[in-house]
Amino acid sequence: MSIIQCKDVCKTFGEKTALDHVSLDIPKGNIFGLLGPNGAGKTTLIRIINRITIPNDGVILFDGRPITQEDVKRIGYLPEERGLYRKMKVGDQAMYFARLKGMSVRDAAAELKKWFGKFGIESWWGKKVEELSKGMAQKVQFITTVVHRPSLLILDEPFSGFDPVNAQIIRDEILRLKEEGATIVLSTHNMESVEELCDNIALINKSHVVITGRVGEIRHKYGQNHFELVYTASSPVVSVPGKYRVLSDSDDSGRHTAVLALEDLSDRTEVLKSLVDLPIVINSYRELVPRMNDIFIKLVTEEE
Predict the structure, then answer these.
(1) Alpha-carbon span 224 to 89, nearest angstrom
(2) 254, 234 in Cβ contact below 8 A?
């Protein structure tokens, strides 16, 4: 079941088309990657889901019905352009955002105390935002995004400004929130994070959806039927017509790493059986699946 369904969403700004009949489903309980180059239309779509702007055409469904302003209280949105008030104290600001999402003073105080303790930032409560570094302010804004326990989290470049240690803390929290039932939309250019975290993705380019689906299925779809064979032998393996071609073979004192291109109709298991019959010791045999970064570049370049 989908928490968000976008149906033929269109948005123009003057003569510029930001979204051109965009349709996609965001499954409940998933981490959904919203990908695309700068200017593709991702931020416009996010703003439409948050009802910050209204589409010219099309509809956004939330839990199967047209989204309302009341539904926005069930969304946590971390924009790429950070929005903390620099002159306000951190604690006052966190309480303000929690109250905007409908939390009582008592519940907001309890939740914020828990989150500040989890991140080890209790001493920041009385500081002004302008006293914080970019990474410190990012932690505060992440807390204000999740404090009301939203059903849907939309995180736009959530790792920007973090060192590797703190980026991992945020990754762990995203995975924990998913385990607790939240749906997370992750808008990012970091393809490693997409592969590590996302269940499904949609790639938007030039205002329309280029591809959408499960990450594993998309990676396999764009594979070239190439396999890596690591083996020990006195001489290299050779191509077998009708089964596989040896594209490359490096030899390190008898330990070989070869890349095989299986023929279109070849079965990977049958190929492995034929390799077992050779006078070699097989150390590993695995499919070489393309990275999301390579697929992203390929699809966007083809669009260009």
Answers:
(1) 55
(2) yes
pLDDT per residue over 121-162, tens digit each? 999 999 998 998 888 888 999 999 999 999 999 999 898 878
Residue among 154, 126, 257 at smallest CA distance from 248: 257
Domain count within the chain: 2
60 and 97 housed in the same domain: yes
CA dihedral 218, 158, 21, 29 (to 10 degrees): 60
Check whether residue 150 and residue 177 sit in a common domain: yes
Of all helices (H) and strands (E), which one includes residue 212? strand 208-214
| 8 Å CB contact between 273 and 244 | no
Residues 176 and 267 in one domain: no
Query: What pTM did the predictor assign?
Result: 0.86
For the cut 90, the answer to whether the pLDDT of residue 264 exceeds it is: no
Task: Tell how far CA 290 is from the center of its chain.
Answer: 17
**Backbone angles phi and psi of 118, in degrees to 5:** -60, -40
Interatomic CA distance for residues 119 and 301, integer angstroms? 41
Does residue 267 sit in the same domain as residue 164?
no
Same domain (yes/no): 175, 280: no
Select from 115, 121, 73 the least CA-distant residue to 97: 73
172-227 pLDDT, tens per residue? 999 999 999 999 999 988 888 999 999 999 999 999 999 999 999 999 899 888 99
Range of the domain at 263: 224-288
CA distance 175 to 165: 16
3-state SS of 121-153?
Answer: CHHHCCCEHHHCCHHHHHHHHHHHHHCCCCCEE
174 Cα distance to chain centroid: 11
